[in-house]
Amino acid sequence: MNISLDIDAKKADLERDGFCVYEESIIPESLLSKALLHTEHIIAGVYNTGRPPSAINAKEGNFTTLQQIFNPHISDYTLFELVTFPKLLQLVANILACDKLQLIGSQLFIKPGFGAPEAETPWHSEYEQIPCFDGGSYSIWLPLTPVDEASGTLWYIPGSHKPTSGITKPRSRFQQEGFHQELDYIRRTSETEVSAIPIHLPAGGISLHHGLTLHGSGVNHASFTRFGISIGVATEHFRINSHIPCGSFIEQLKDPQIAPVVFERTM
Ligand SMILES: O=C(O)CCC(=O)C(=O)O
Predict the structure, then answer these.
(1) Atom of ligand 1 nearest to the CA of 66
(2) 94: CB partners within 8 A, 6+ apart
(3) Mean local confidence (pLDDT), 216-231
């Protein structure tokens, strides 16, 4: 397909649904496998930059629960190379039609396989978790292993980014009984019909979502651990609502290792 037509289609999907999916892998296989290996290094406490991640709840040999590593790109040069891969940023900047991208955080989601029941990601949106964010930020989701329904992929609720969608917000992660149970609750209580779309991607493909889009992921039934990294980016239109407390996020945005400017369009 003509690349500019393809970009236009992704832009339209993002505007209408609150997310779009780029099904081709844009990360070289050598970088993907190195990133997987270096994720294991971080779990083992080996940080080649000398700086630990912002937070970590991952343990070697944990095959039962979802594990998360916050800002792994500050701890490891390979993870930094992955989240700042030029072809990836160029693609995202083209879809968002923006001139600048600043990294605002990254998060690894490691989901053990064989049906581990405590490895779901509850339904949420980024702005619900960081309520002071007020537009101009997006998340890139990049699986490091192939994903589909069986392997615990990410699901989206199309249209949920629109304030007037009539779609019920999910309850807090502590109130949610399970991924599918919460989806049933959202469906039962919404003023409109709610669909939910599982994303199919090869390792190194991406989805891109708006800060208000509802998303989450279920159990991984595959015989391998599913690795995905979420990369938060802010465009030049990024806004913070100064009336809402922002906690440590403001400090984080001032840290040049956590939040560097990673793309600037040259004329
Ligand atoms: O990988 C997952 O299960 C969750 C990812 C996520 O919440 C995100 O990319 O914002």
Answers:
(1) 3
(2) 7
(3) 97
